[in-house]
Structures are given as structure tokens and as C-alpha cells.
Amino acid sequence: MSAIGQVQVDERDGVVVARLTGEFDLSNVGDVEQTIARSVGHETRGVVVDLTGTTYLDSTGIRMIFGLKRRLDDRRQQLHLVSSDAALVSRVLSLTRLPEAVPVHVDVEAAVDALRQSA
């Protein structure tokens, strides 16, 4: 994976949490997508993608998130995002209308709780 962005994946009570830090663009979103996909099993309730540490996200990153949502929907799993209103990425999310398709929370705990309650 490119040094400009990193993804760290862990699991909490059947929910995969992927924390993205740094910049994400064409050079590294493929690796991020594969890392997240490998961590999602059939028993996974859903995935939380934490964008609070993301400093840049281009159109390929947005496409990756929409693609992840479609794949999870096909498996009857859910995707939730975490982003701060103050983050630069939140403007990109808003412009692409992503929050209309994927719930956005202010912190990881709120997103994980929402996934637990919806199961």
C-alpha cells in the first residue's frame, strides 16, 4: 500500500471497524478495498469505516465506499461511516450525497452501537 494512507482493521462484537488515516486516491484505494473485503466474514454484522483520520479522499475513494456498500447490501450486511463535521472529508461526502446512502456517525462507538441495534 502507498505510504500516503493507511488502513487498520479490527473487530468489535461482530462489527468490522476500518480506520483510514492519511490520503486516499487512485494509488492506494485498491489495497484498502482488498484489506477491508478480506476482513468481512459471513457472520459479520456490518462494517464501520472511520474517516476521522482521513485528510484527503478523491473520487476513487468515494467509488470504493459506494462499491463496498453494494457488496455488503448483497450480503445483507450494513455499512456505516464515521466523520466529523469539521473534517475536510465531510465536505466531499456531502457533495457526493454519500450520507443519503450510508449512515454517518460522529464516532466509532455510535456507529458500532447502531449496527448492533439493527441486527
Protein model, in words:
The protein is of the alpha/beta class. It has one domain: Transcription Regulator spoIIAA (2-Layer Sandwich). It contains four helices and five strands; from the N terminus they run ββαβαβαβα. The protein is globular and about 30 Å long. The termini are far apart.
Task: Name the CATH homologous superfamily.
Answer: STAS domain
**Helical region count?**
4
The string of secondary-structure elements, in order, is EEHEHEHEH
Kindly state the percentage of residues in helix: 25-40%
Please give the alpha-carbon distance between the first and last residues.
Answer: 33 Å
Tally of discrete structural domains: 1
Question: How many extended strands?
Answer: 5
Largest sheet: 5 strands, mixed
- Please give the order of strands in the largest beta sheet: 1-2-3-4-5
Coarse morphology: globular
Q: Could you name the CATH topology?
A: Transcription Regulator spoIIAA
- Approximately how much beta-strand content do the residues carry? 25-35%
Q: How much is the radius of gyration in Å?
A: 13 Å
Topology overview:
Blueprint: E1 5-12, E2 15-24, H1 29-39, E3 46-57, H2 59-74, E4 78-82, H3 88-95, E5 104-105, H4 108-118
Parallel strand pairs: 2-3, 3-4, 4-5
Antiparallel strand pairs: 1-2
Helix pairs in contact: 1-2
Question: How is this structure best summarized?
Answer:
This protein has helices at 29-39, 59-74, 88-95, 108-118, and strands at residues 5-12, 15-24, 46-57, 78-82, 104-105. It is of the alpha/beta class.
